[in-house]
Amino acid sequence: MSKLNLAFQDFQRNVQFYRAVRYAIGILKIYSKDYDKRVNKRNNRNLLILDKPINNHDESSATPMVDLIQDSRQEEELFKILLQSNAFDFKNERLERAFFPLPYKQRRLLELKYVENYSQREISNIIGQTEKNIHYWHKKTIKQLQSQLSL
Asked: What pLDDT shows up at residue 40?
């Protein structure tokens, strides 16, 4: 009777193990198919095709999106030329030394604000960011300059 009991318990363990394995295999098959569907859906959701014309009515005369993208490298080069031509006339040498290590975005913001006298709303339209973000970067830049000058 005890041998029969042990054999039955062993059989039960094997059955439970094979059920668990079969369940896991089924789950892996289902999730792998579902995962592939989700990945394909996400990858094909918002395709950006830059060579496609903006308006589909007359494709021969329509300009592609790639022509409308601004090249930030050209803007940076112009800014460097402005810096070399002393558009920023610094009276304070320490301020000048604190200004030049700033990233391009922050220097451009200060130029628009203090050299060209634009308001935050105008700067946000030029740069293409919200006024709140412009305010944040302006405040951060001023704090960085102050910390550099206090050293």
From this structure: 82
Instruction: Give the Å distances, CA to CA, from 32 to 18, 44, 98.
Output: 21, 18, 55
Q: Is residue 107 classed exposed, middle or buried when 0-12, 13-18 and 19+ CB atoms within 10 A define those classes? A: buried
Q: How far is 77 from 64, CA to CA, in rounded Å?
A: 25
Does the pTM exceed 0.70?
A: no
Taking residue 48's Cβ as centre, other Cβ atoms within 10 Å add up to 6
Residue 10: its pLDDT value, please?
92
Residue 7, both tokens = 């054999």
CB atoms within 10 A of CB 109: 23
Give the other-Cβ count within 10 Å of 138's Cβ: 17
Q: Which residues make Cβ contacts (< 8 Å) with residue 148, sequence separation at least 6?
A: 94, 97, 98, 101
Over range 53-77, report the average pLDDT.
60
Does position 113 have pLDDT exceeding 80, yes or no?
A: yes
Read off the tokens for 34: 């579902």
Collect contacts of 119-124 with beta carbons under 8 A, ≥24 apart: none
Are the beta carbons of 129 and 138 closer than 8 angstroms? no
Q: Would you place residue 128 in the very low, low, confident or very high pLDDT band (cuts 50, 70, 90)? A: confident
